[in-house]
What we know:
By secondary structure, chain A is mostly helical. Chain A has a domain at 284-521. Chain A is built from 21 helices and 2 strands. Chain A has a two-stranded antiparallel ribbon with strand order 1-2. In chain A, β1 (75-83) and β2 form a beta hairpin. Chain A is globular, with a radius of gyration of 22 Å. The relative contact order of chain A is 0.10. Chain B starts with a helix and ends in a 10-residue tail after the last helix. The mean pLDDT of chain B is 87. Chain B has one domain. In chain B, strands 1-2 form a two-stranded antiparallel ribbon. The chains are: A mainly alpha, B mainly alpha. At the A-B interface, α4, α5, α6 and α7 of A face α17 and α18 of B.
Amino acid sequence: MIDISPSVMQFLLAFLVAAPLLGAVAALLPAPPGLKGRSPEQAVLRHGVTVTGVILAAAIALALGFDHDAPARFQATTDISWIPALDVRIHLGVDGISLPLLVMTALLFFLCALYSYFKLPAGPSPKAFVALLLVLESGTLATFAVLDLLLFFLAFEMVLIPMYFLIARWGGAQRQAAAWKFILYTLLGSVVMLLGLLLIGVTADTFDMVALATDNGRELSRTTQLLAVLAIGLGLAVKTPMWPLHTWLPDAHTAAPTVGSVLLAGVLLKMGTYGFVRILLPVTPDGMAAFAPYLGAFAVVGIVYGSLACLALARKGNKGDLKRLIAYSSVGHMGFVLLGIASMTPTGVNGALFANIAHGLITGLLFFLVGALKDRYGTADLDTLAGATGAALYGRAPRFGALLAFAAVASLGLPGLAGFWGEMLALFGAFDPAEGLSRPAFLTYTAVGALGTLLTAAYLLVVVRRVCMGDPKAGPELTVADVHRYEFAAWTPLVALTVLAGLWPALLLGLTDPAVQQLLAGGTS
Amino acid sequence: MTALTVLAADTPSLVQSVDWLAIAPVVITAVVGLAVLVADLFVAERHKPALGWISVAGLAAATATLLPLRAGDRSTFCLTADPEACSYVADGFTVVVQFLVLAGALLTALLSVTAVRDTRMPAGEYWFLLLSSAAGAALLPASRDLATLIVALEVASLPAFALVGMRRGDRLSSEAALKFFLSSVTATAVSLMGVSFVYAVTGSLHLTQVADRLEDVPGQLDTLAMAGVALTLVGFAFKTAAVPFHFWVPDTYVGAPLPIAGYLSVIGKAVGFTGLILVTVIAFPAYSQVWGPAVAVLAALTMTLGNAAAVRQSADRPNSAVRLLAWSSVGQAGYLLVPIAAAAYTERDQIGSTLAYALMYAAVNLGAFAVAALVARTKPLHRIGDYRGLYAERPLAALSLAFFLLCLAGLPPGIIGLFAKVTVFQSAVDAGLGWLAVLMAINVVIALYYYLRWTALLFRAPEGAPGAQARTKAPWPVAAAIVATAITAVVLSGAPQLVLRVASGSLFTQ
Lengths: 525, 510
């Protein structure tokens, strides 16, 4: 939109990846004079807000400087050799697929840093908290910015250690077990993924994603493609997570601190689906076509399973934990994303990418809200919260209740909000899948997926009824603080973007569509 | 008269020329070792620490002589009749392994300076034994005939037995030494038997000639040759502590002085795998269908058993930290064997991945032992539980140890560990050893569990009141060893190419 010179763009992208790391190191050092603040804790938390803020500004500048007339072209590219022995190159670049994810990641990290500045989760020193948060940010931004398979793997692994410590040190009940489950599960997935990446790299003799995508799998035999898709797909499916590999997710979400849950749902899960779109679709199209029906099947099972689990948790007397419920709803939502990808059509993949962003915004907001609720009540147990008639948030804290209701209806896919477009397009894509894929199978998936949207609506409305409605006079006498000012600051951007993406979907689709078209056509169009 | 001259001109001289620069790294180490032993007789008790510094300087000088050799194109002690067959070759492979051995021995020496002083071990013997063992280990990669190979192997191991038993009056120490000695000697005897079989079949001891002649072995000798190949491997598999020849490892490490445990885990391993590489890819390529699957199975067993045992170490038992490092080194030996197995299926340059991995492993594992030596000064029980809250007490040592452990686990921020594992995986994938790669993937996950558990412990709140015990100052040689290894690991993580370049391209000249 604005004309920024290519070298500045190049710098901005490299800055996005490198700056959080430098910020993390700086966070561990004592604050320089003049920046000491009220206390060391306050100084380091402010440092976190500053660094993530600067990175958000850089991401926005990158988005403004991005040539929106050519979103299919990689822009702001850097390509320098790093490890010639392994043929690893520091190859960075951004196109219409990765740009929205980069901006959303930077935004969510900034909001999380801002939120933590006022409401630090209980745990050891905030110094380590800020440093880990920044390393996490670097890893996630790098995942979306790199164009080299081994660098992608490195970025994929980089998030594990910080997230482990965030859960294990700042989490809630049973955090140790949850943190172990998270890291061992995802590491197993990503090491298997590495085998697939190496198989591609060794056979095609390059790790460069752009070259591999342009080649569109012509160099790779069918057997190689099948093996590679199996190995890489497994690793990505654990991260996404795809049913039945999702079991780490509910525990991790339940135990993680609020910002950990927000980032896990909003950013880390997207790394899995992004890998499907960026690597598997263009590099191994034949292998992907062979596995697409199975992927679609697992996706719709995930949709229905996630919603049924949520319905069970939302029922009275089941002692459902709200955080766990939202985690299961993520399994369902990511099922739609996977279904869109499995259709292998531009419509479906665009829908998947849209649903990715929408899920990041909406579920991020939901986890913020539920986390704040847990802080106010001391529990996220739905039965304790609701009591006999309901938690009556509308009566006790009207703004809070309204926000929760808004996030819930956005999550169930109300037209006019962000959640609607992605899931609808994904279902459309599955309705008319790519040539060569079994139409009847995908028609079934569409039907089952549509049923899933109904179930989603059902449990979210149950949650709204039990948490927001009820008799404020009944139940325990407690005053619930309404939305604080810093909470408004952290949540309003998410609300605004949810509405914006819902009313103006072309903003996102205009970016992703040309890139997706080129990707599926084998880098030629 | 004329007839005599003609005769003299026709018969090549029997005297081999010696390239002194090529053998300098080995000779300097051995000579300094002898000098220290002799000097020990004449030096007064209060000047004994000087012997340690002479040894450190000798090892540093030996390491420095590798610099002019780095082109890797020298050979000496060649047959006058066949200049292609040499007993000592300083090619790229030799120089890399010698660097690993000598630099590793230098770090061990730094750690030993304080250990010898504190535990009152006999200084002269200690330094002599350490330098002799290092000289043998440095000779091994250069030797290109089976006799030199076995001699180097013995020179490297015999002093190690004595070093393990160095802690006077310690029952555990002598028992460990005896266990180590008996099992090692058996393995060497088996190896010698194998070498004699191979000699019987080929009539030569030079590896290159053995390789040529094994190409067409007469039918009736085929079984003998195969048996010879298999038996030779046993001795070297023992040194690498490959399962099922691993049982000596944990007790030996626990019984040995800590620097020697570190030495065995790195240089002892290097001795094993260089010998294994030399006999497999240089001498026996003709029988790769025999040793290829055998090494692959060894690798699989070794990594699985080592990691399974390491996971089971409970944090509160005495010596659990050393035991964990011992078992994890068995697991790491499994990864080191993978590229050797891969070399049987593709080409011999795959073993570059083993070297790259070994260089990374040497730096970080010695670093971990250095931190363990530091911690053991205040908490001599070597329990993993003793490391709780190390960050609060010694932040830099804790950060270094965390970095070393994550390098061993192969997770960022330990980037060099990650890419070293990637090269090993790559060699397995390249060779079509899919099952081994998948097994290794599972092992990496198991290993992460115990490495990360230890790492997490470093940053927990310390038990008891903070500042309850006075913080002792770290002796500077130990601190220097930690700093050197930490800087190496960090620099390599930024520029992995420094190490990984040995994984690409050819290292052998012959």
